[in-house]
């Protein structure tokens, strides 16, 4: 059963756009923090904006299917030159309204996207879907304040942003400058485990809230008109994934993505659109290698530091940014699997 998030003006559920600081929900006091989080000091570094070395310009929008526009994010880290516009973001135009997903990596990135939308359509922007809590996907939401959209996320997104949002905002402000980052925007509509639908006027978007995988608040969505699956960071293509939820959970969720039987996907990172089957297979191979070799390292009595040096090295040449993320993924995997 799905809750139907109908396409209607959202004046009755006012988006929480206040620039309210939520430092009092800081991660170190979050009751929801797991032991793994404690061991990692609250975060795995892979989800914290890092100062990038290349000031790569972001690329333009591509219309990858009728009424579906995506900007490919470059495979680099956040830098002042790219305004943290490093994730794949875009929008879908229906008969009556526009849905944005994701809104961008900063206020500046979101403003860029909003101005691009206005070059294509004057239809109201009624929905902003945030696929998960990571800064490169969520901070653009502040750029849509005047549209008063529904801010839609996984049922765990609000709590995750309350726990980490302010930390992310400050870290990103150090890189981009505070005026570029924008406020932490909390969801106004959270998708339950049963899923939800949004109707853009004859164009229904189906939303699915996943169990812990890439993060603890991953949302995917399918466009009924084209069959396109927007996977968020549940799928990385070409760029090495970052693990910030559950390794075993992610492998399970990949099976669920496969069962959706989409032909084409929009990954969170990588090309604007890709074939579903090879994208899922590649990521599954990496994650399964990470799982199997980490288990082996634990069984052989290796320390985390030793495991970081050896696990999944066979994958090294297959992914960009491998050396930036694989070690952290091994650390995450080790902490998850050592309790088996
Ligand atoms: Zn991402
Ligand atoms: Zn992510």
Structure description:
By secondary structure, this protein is an alpha/beta fold. The protein has one domain: 4-Layer Sandwich (Metallo-beta-lactamase, Chain A), CATH 3.60.15. The protein has nine helices and 14 strands. It has helices at 35-39, 107-120, 135-138, 157-176, 178-181, 247-259, 276-299, 304-310, 322-337, and strands spanning 3-5, 61-65, 68-71, 89-93, 98-101, 125-129, 150-154, 189-191, 196-199, 204-209, 219-223, 229-236, 264-269, 274-275. The protein has a seven-stranded mixed sheet with strand order 1-9-10-11-12-13-14, covered by helices on one side. Strands 2-3-4-5-6-7-8 form a seven-stranded mixed sheet, with helices on one face. Helix 8 (304-310) packs across helix 9. The protein is globular. The two termini are 34 Å apart. The structure holds zinc ion (ZN) (2 copies). Residues 132, 134, 214, 233 line the site of one zinc ion.
Radius of gyration: 19 Å
What percentage of amino acids are in beta strands?
Answer: 15-25%
The level-1 CATH class: Alpha Beta
Any idea of the CATH topology?
Answer: Metallo-beta-lactamase, Chain A
User: What is the number of helical segments per DSSP (H or I, 4+ residues)?
Assistant: 9
Give a list of the ligands: zinc ion
User: Which second-level CATH architecture applies?
Assistant: 4-Layer Sandwich
Largest sheet, described in full? 7 strands, mixed
- Envelope shape: globular
N- to C-terminal distance: 34 Å
Number of strands: 14
């Amino acid at each position: 059963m799905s809750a139907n998030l109908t396409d209607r003006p959202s004046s009755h559920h006012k988006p929480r756009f206040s620039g309210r600081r939520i430092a009092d929900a800081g991660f170190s006091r979050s009751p929801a923090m797991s032991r793994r989080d404690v061991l990692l000091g609250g975060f795995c570094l892979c989800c914290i904006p890092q100062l990038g070395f290349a000031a790569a310009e972001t690329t333009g929008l591509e219309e990858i299917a009728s009424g579906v526009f995506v900007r490919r994010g470059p495979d680099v880290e956040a830098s002042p030159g790219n305004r943290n516009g490093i994730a794949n973001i875009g929008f879908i135009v229906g008969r009556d309204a526009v849905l944005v997903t994701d809104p961008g990596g900063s206020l500046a990135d979101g403003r860029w996207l909003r101005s691009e939308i206005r070059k294509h359509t004057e239809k109201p922007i009624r929905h902003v879907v945030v696929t998960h809590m990571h800064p490169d996907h969520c901070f653009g939401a502040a750029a849509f304040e005047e549209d008063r959209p529904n801010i839609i996320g996984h049922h765990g997104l609000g709590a995750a942003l309350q726990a980490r949002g302010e930390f992310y905002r400050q870290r990103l402000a150090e890189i981009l400058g505070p005026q570029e980052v924008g406020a932490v925007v909390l969801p106004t509509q959270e998708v339950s485990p049963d899923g939800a639908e949004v109707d853009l006027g004859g164009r229904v978007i189906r939303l699915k809230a996943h169990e812990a995988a890439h993060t603890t608040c991953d949302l995917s969505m399918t466009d009924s008109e084209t069959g396109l699956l927007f996977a968020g960071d549940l799928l990385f293509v070409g760029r090495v994934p970052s693990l910030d939820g559950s390794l075993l959970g992610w492998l399970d969720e990949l099976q669920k993505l496969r069962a959706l039987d989409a032909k084409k996907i929009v990954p969170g990172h990588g090309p604007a659109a890709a074939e579903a089957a090879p994208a899922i297979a590649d990521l599954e191979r990496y994650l399964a290698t990470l799982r199997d070799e980490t288990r082996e390292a634990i069984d052989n009595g290796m320390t985390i530091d030793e495991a970081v040096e050896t696990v999944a090295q066979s994958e090294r040449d297959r992914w960009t940014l491998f050396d930036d993320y694989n070690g952290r993924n091994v650390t995450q995997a080790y902490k998850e699997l050592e309790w088996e």
